[in-house]
Every structure is written in structure tokens, then in C-alpha cells.
């Protein structure tokens, strides 16, 4: 973050940072009081102006200890769960990278920490093609030159979060990474900033690695002042798009900055966006039409404080449209994604539409950037979103930090939001427990909502290949859907269902009872209660016959139908 001495916003930003560092909620409340006092003195109250009805929150979960924890990124995984990465503080000045995996209902599945005796920070995670994870951030503990400064840290884990390899990149000064993505050649692309290399005080640093993390090439971008990249994505032509800010180019102060490269990291073009106030792009994505969408914040919308900013370009980086969102207080977007309907979601924080402090904020737009609805989440203290994604059920998963809930001054925060216009479109028992055995389950399932189901997922016991080998669904005596496992290949966790016409879906109606027969293999998780009810409906066991011929009447398979 770059601060500006002559700007009132600078002072407010410094106050906020100091209050966050204090890790005392009472002090954070003082920040909230200052913000709201200034807002009311300058402009009076305002309310959000959503044009449509937002969907409902399904659940929210917090993870953390009495020390602060900060979540930076989330992604839905192939098993329907979620992977989060961020940072956990375990001593006065010591932090580790925290990798946390959940089931589809947000329940913790496992977590791992990575780091040494000093400060290590995690900023980005992605599931890889082998169902492991790639993580990047910065490390003080493993500074490769022994200068006692930060290096870029890139490391790979297996599907259980166990480390497989790690690499550090850096020079004689501080270097860091905010974003990583697996590339088409199974290598990795990393973007962030460097003090060690380049032309200015800080330059954008783009590092390409092979599949094993060994450096393939690196490039710097920038002028005599300061530049950073917050996000990178590989584009359809094999090149890369980077988003961040520049002080060396553009108008006064900082400008949002897009840089497009070819597959070797050579610059094709760069574009600046903004005016006299400080502006920056926090996230970028290539859109379906080959252009780009970025989200961030701007002080150039005519408001006294920053607004969340959404800007669309064509494939050459030329502006097609630009929209701002916000009210009378500071607002910012930290993440953006194009949605299945061609619109966009952006998420971050708002102080304009919160009576206490800052709230987490989710905004949905149409394809032209016009707001359709927005939602706020939060409590008495500071809450915000750092990462958001549309999920396979057309809902949304949000990750960030909360000072209002949980047990610490800040905790990881995971929020699930339903799809628009749908009460729910899946059935999920959540995870089960041991004891477990393969066998054949029969019973009844009654959904609490209308469902259009395409896949069956079976929760496996940790460290096993637990799965379902087949499923049949009957309504009375009529077979309405079935599916068969394809073995341990590709997405082996899921079975695709086909209805009586052969189409790959089946419709289940609210409050109607269906009979299921599910044959399982290896060690699936089991729910040992009868019946089992939750917000998605009810499932019962008629009979379970295990692989040894033993019969039970209270073993329900832990499954998700989506």
C-alpha cells in the first residue's frame, strides 16, 4: 500500500492500518467511530441502491485461534469442497502460511501450516491438475541469500496438503508474490513485486517456473517509481495479463495498470487507468469475448472517498466501460469474476452501508456492469472479503477476514451464498465418520427443495479411495436415474447420473420421497444416525449390507447430490 501525505484519505488509511495492527477490537471500534463521524459530517446517511433482490446466505464459518488469522484466497475444489490460504500469527512477530481445506458445507476437513521461525505470508492458492495445490506468498524464514529480507515463496502440496516441493526466488532486497496460476504446460506463473530487480524502487515481477518449481524465466515491468502486480492470469493465446498499479506512468498519484505479455513474458502492451487520485486494480480476468475485466478502487469518481471500481476493456486494453460502486464512505473491490450469465461479481468491503465499521461486500452486475444486487455481511467490527468465486451450483463462495465473529481479533471467514432465484439446488448430508466399510446402502431420500441433480459425490475417509460404484434412484417402483463409477481416473470422486431418457440430470421435487440404492467401494464416510435431517432434506437407511455380509439398519452414506 502506498500512502499520500497531503490526502485526508491517507491519514484515514494509516489510522485503519494502525488499528488493525493493534489487534484489539476496542481500538477497531474507535476507527469505526472516526470513519462514521467523518462520513456523517461530510454527507449524512446513505443506503445501498441495489436494483434486484439478492440471494440468501446459506452458511458462514470462521476458523482461527485467539491470535489473528487472515484469509487471502479461496477456490472450490473438484470434490465440491473449498481450499483457503492465508496467514496465521503464532507469536508476537511470527507468522506462518495457513492452508485449510473444507467439505462442501464449510466444515473443516484438514489444515496445514508452512513456515519457519520468522514471518511467512500466504496470498494465493490454486488446485492443480493432479488434485494437489500450488501456493505462493513471501518468506522471511527461508531467505535464500541470508539477507534477512523477504523472498518469493512457491510451494506445492498433494491433495492432503502435505508438502511436495518448494522454491524461493529473490535477490538482495525484499521480493514478494500475490498471485499464482498453473499454466497450460503444467508449470506455474507467479506475479508480485520486487525491490531487488528492475528500474525503480519497486517493480512488477513476473516469474515463470517449470512443473517442479524451478525458474524458467522472469521479467520486470516498471519505471523509476513504484509498481506492483496483485493478479496474473494466463490468457487464451498462451500469454499473460497482469493487474496492479503504477506510479511511474499515467496521471498523478498511482494509476491502475494492466500489462499484457506473450508466452515468454515479453510485453505486448500496457495501459494505465485513472485520474489525479490514487487508483489501483486488485484483480483481473480475461472475459468470454477476449477482453479483460478488472476490479479495484478509485478516488476519481467524484466522491470524497474511494469507490469500488469495475472496468471492462477490449482485447487491446482499450476501455469499453467503467463503473463505480459506493456511497459516502471508503469502499473497495478486491476480487472479480465473470459469472455464467455473462455478468460479473465483485467483492471487497464497504463503509458506506454499515452502521458500525466496515462490512464485507458482494456486488452482482449484468454484462454491462450495471448493478443487479448487492449484499453486506458483518457485525460490530471490521469485516471484509478478499476472494470470491461462483460455485458449481451457481451460488457463490466468499473468503475474507472477520473481526466481528470467531474467537480471535481476526479469523478466517468463509461464506456460502445461494444461486439467484434458487432456494437450493443440491442435497448434502455433509461428512460422516468411522466406522466404515464398503457395501450396498438402500433407503429413502426426501429433499426439502426442488433439485436438478447431475452428480453424486461420496465423502471418503481420510487417506482412502472411498467412493460410490453405482447409484439407482427410484420413485415408487419406477427407475428414474442411475449412474456408474468410471474408476480411479480424472474426477473419480463423482458419478454422473442419467435419467430415463439418457440425459445427464434428474429432477427431484420438494417433499417427495425417493428410494435410493448406492453401492460403495473402499472406505466411504458413514452417518451413524437414523434418520438424518438438515436444511437440504431427510435421508434414512432401510438396510446396509457390508462387504462381509453383515447387515445394519442405521448406516447412511455421507453423500452430496449436486
Mind explaining what this structure looks like?
There is one protein chain. Among the domains are: 149 residues, no CATH class; 135 residues, Jelly Rolls (Sandwich), CATH 2.60.120. The chain is built from two helices and 45 strands. The strands form eleven sheets. Strands 30, 33, 34, 36, 38, 40, 41, 42 and 43 form a nine-stranded antiparallel sheet that branches. Strands 1-28-27-26 form a four-stranded antiparallel sheet, with no helix packed on it. The protein is globular, with a radius of gyration of 25 Å. The N terminus is likely disordered.
- Residue stretches low in confidence (pLDDT < 50, at least 5 long) are 1-49
**Amount of helix:** under 10%
Protein structure class: mainly beta
Terminal Cα span: 41 Å
Strand proportion? over 45%
Average of per-residue pLDDT values:
87
The coarse silhouette is globular
Q: What's the total number of strands? A: 45
Determine Rg (CA atoms, Å).
Answer: 25 Å
Biggest beta sheet summary:
9 strands, antiparallel
Can you count the helices? 2
